[in-house]
Amino acid sequence: MKICETVKPAKPGSWLVVGGAGYIGSHVIRRLRADRRGVVALDDLSTGDAARVPGDVPLVIGSVADRTVVSAVLREHRVDGVIHLAARKSATESVAYPRRYYRDNVEGMRILLDEMIDTGVKRFLLSSSAAVYGVPNNPLVTETTPTAPISPYGETKLICEWLLRSAGRANGLSWVALRYFNVVGAAHPLLADTSNDNLFPLVFQEVTAGRPAMVTGIDYQTKDGTGVRDYVHIADVADAHAAAVERLERQQSADIYNVGTGVGYSVLEVLDAIRAVSGLPVEVTALPRRPGDAPEIVANVDKIAHDLAWKARHDLNSMVRSAWQAWSRLDTASAR
Fold it and tell me: Where does the NAD-dependent epimerase/dehydratase domain start and stop, copy by copy (predicted)?
């Protein structure tokens, strides 16, 4: 285990953000810090970037699957609650490498729960996914929509929810699981999404190089043949975490919430927004559907609005604009 030497230990009663150097985790940390909460980050930096973690936040470099590391950070930083964001997250990759996803996502979750219970940490906020719904009969899904994931990634997220629910009952944990829809944008120019699996950075990479955007699947039964998704700004997602943390600190919970906007946009509609924001021509090359992709899925967000008083504030243009600004800064810096 390595703890960055430039920072002090987290405040007593801190929240441990597992995957805190990642795209979503770094935004969540900044949001919690804005609320003056104590935070400590745990990340193995396999996909995360230490530069994303603010200098006054302790960063423990290690794996959630390492019991010694997890136990040490929980005890040394007097952690009071855990936000678990570390996971492999590509539905397509999971189809090719299912054992890797079960090992990293499910086993990591089990070890984290074991060490929390052993150290008496009782609050848990889980990063889950809309992938647990699979291909629903009604594309507008509520938290009670039957879960039938179609990829090993979605299966592992659902299993993590089951583990958390069972541990909550058996060990008195208070917990919330947030089922994210498609998280995009950037709340800070330094926190750009650079994933090779997400639509925005994939399109930005192609159009800035003068290549056409690859659209996987143009024959779905949707409004224009391309997949329809509920895109939600990362700043709104971070706000949802802050609202869930407040709920967990205030009362015992055992709840699952969708985190989206309630509005679906097709891939072609997103490309139109990228053209408008970037001023660049965006040509399209059609490719076959990807394994594990649903034609259309949109969040019903009534429950989170009622229970947590949370509602997404950003529209698609705001999401695209923030993502493009962050990407442009990143692209300019890499060109120097």
Answer: 15-260
